[in-house]
UniProtKB/TrEMBL annotation:
It is a multi-pass membrane protein. The lineage of its organism: Bacteria, Pseudomonadati, Bacteroidota, Sphingobacteriia, Sphingobacteriales. Keywords: Cell membrane, Cell shape, Membrane, Peptidoglycan synthesis, Transmembrane, Transmembrane helix. This is Polysaccharide biosynthesis protein C-terminal domain-containing protein. It comes from the Bacteria. Its main location: membrane. The chain crosses the membrane at residues 20-40, 52-73, 94-119, 125-148, 266-283, 304-327, 339-360, 372-391, 397-419. GO terms for cellular component: plasma membrane. Belongs to the MurJ/MviN family. GO terms for biological process: peptidoglycan biosynthetic process; regulation of cell shape. Involved in peptidoglycan biosynthesis. Transports lipid-linked peptidoglycan precursors from the inner to the outer leaflet of the cytoplasmic membrane. It is found in: Cell membrane.
Length: 434
């Protein structure tokens, strides 16, 4: 351990990670304040429960494609980056394909949510109807992120959340009194639209990358879609866990969904920091795989560093959890603040395990073993449903947070064993071929 940290601290990779994390924190700072502003303005109610549940559904649908496009595309772009024609053809094909797919999906969501609202007159479905455009633009924006990350423009890409957050705040401030919490949804829609134009400007004008229908060739992305399908399936199953948590919480007392969401949002700053590191890591490991330099030892070293830093953050939250929550959610009743604080602490324990799991996922994606992720996510999903219901009956809303920790732990073990087995099998096949 003593030898690892100095080596890492002296590494150019760490310097880039620190720089990107700093840019991300600055860019996402206003985004961190959005849920705090929501709590300040709307507190905890049935309306906030409906909003957070509807937004969880929208995030679930969007993340089915957004996370996959942003990450899986990087190894494929790295393979083509030396040939500008093939690179341009690939991004054009992916953009056109997903644009068509998303339009069909969004029309279906519009019709379904509107029909459910007319039929049931429930506010939840109205919120869903208003939120559908978020799905379209969040996926397209994730594709843009993937393109920029593939050409190592990490810092440029990370500035777009700042403009998005400004739009959201301005919208809530001016429309909040007139439209209530619906103004938050309108703000999220306009924020994603603003991010779309920002990223499109960077890609088309700043980097002169062309996206043209003339370069469309479905055969060009057939392998990518196969790999992407496995991650989409994995992300779909994995992203369902937060949704399951909130659905279970909806059957508890009024405000339970809001409590979970407020507790989740506080540690988003650490998630952003981890995400910045993982973005660089995936790009580096994708290059290592192409050059044949990736080894399991690199994974172990990275996991050890992430584990050490995550433990340090957990200890900080353990000591200052009540002070943090009382400052951030000052308008929330004290009794609710205590519950949010405990949810935050338990979530941080899960964050340690999930961080290690995300490091493994980067290796899986770089090696194109994404089928492993489907297996891991499926097991986690089944366990999550069972323990969510069981733990919620025993400990209430905090029990749902306990369940997440258990699920992350099981997923970590399975994911690592599958990767190790797959790498061993691949090495054996190479040895036989030689």
């Amino acid at each position: 351990m003593k030898g690892i940290l100095p080596n890492l601290l002296g590494n150019k990779f760490l310097a880039r990670a620190i720089k990107l994390s700093s840019v991300s924190i600055v860019s996402n700072f206003l985004g961190f304040l959005i849920p705090i502003y929501i709590a300040y303005r709307y507190s905890i109610s049935k309306e906030t429960d409906d909003f957070f549940l509807s937004y969880s559904i929208i995030l679930f649908v969007g993340n089915m494609f957004a996370g996959s496009v942003r990450t899986v595309i990087i190894p494929f772009l790295k393979e083509r980056i030396s040939d500008s024609f093939l690179y341009s053809k690939f991004i054009s094909t992916v953009f056109i394909y997903f644009t068509k797919l998303l339009l069909i999906l969004c029309v279906a969501l519009f019709v379904t949510s509107l029909a459910l609202f007319v039929w049931t007159d429930k506010q939840l479905y109205w919120f869903l109807f208003l939120s559908v455009p978020i799905v379209y633009f969040s996926v397209i924006n994730s594709f843009f992120y993937g393109v920029l990350n593939s050409i190592d423009q990490f810092y440029v890409a990370e500035f777009s959340p700042f403009s998005r957050a400004i739009i959201i705040f301005v919208t809530i401030y001016f429309l909040g009194s007139q439209f209530g919490i619906s103004a938050v949804i309108i703000g999220y829609n306009l924020g994603e639209l603003g991010k779309f134009f920002h990223l499109l400007y960077i890609i088309r004008i700043k980097n002169k990358l062309t996206i043209s229908r003339k370069n469309y060739d479905f055969k060009e992305i057939s392998v990518f879609l196969k790999q992407g399908f496995f991650q989409i399936a994995s992300v779909t199953i994995a992203a369902s866990s937060p949704l399951v948590d909130r659905v279970v919480a909806a059957f508890l007392a009024v405000g339970a969904v809001s409590l979970i969401d407020y507790g989740d949002k506080v540690f988003s700053v650490f998630t952003v920091l981890l995400g910045s590191f993982l973005t660089l890591l995936l790009s580096k490991w994708s290059g290592d795989v192409v050059s044949g330099n990736f080894r399991l030892k690199k994974l172990h070293k990275t996991m050890l560093i992430v584990f050490t830093l995550s433990i340090a953050v957990f200890v900080f939250i353990l000591i200052f959890k009540f002070q943090i929550i009382s400052v951030i959610y000052s308008r929330v009743p004290k009794s609710k603040q205590e519950i949010i604080a405990y949810i935050l602490l338990v979530n941080m324990a899960g964050f340690i395990l999930n961080s290690l799991n995300q490091v493994i996922n980067n290796a899986v994606i770089a090696l194109k073993f994404t089928r492993n992720m489907v297996i891991t996510s499926t097991v986690k999903f089944v366990i999550n449903i069972i323990v969510d219901i069981l733990f919620a009956k025993i400990w209430g809303v905090i029990g749902i947070a306990y369940a997440s920790v258990l699920v992350h732990g099981v997923g970590l073990v399975i994911n690592y064993l599958l990767l190790k087995s797959k790498m061993h099998s691949a090495s054996s096949l190479k040895g036989q071929a030689a």
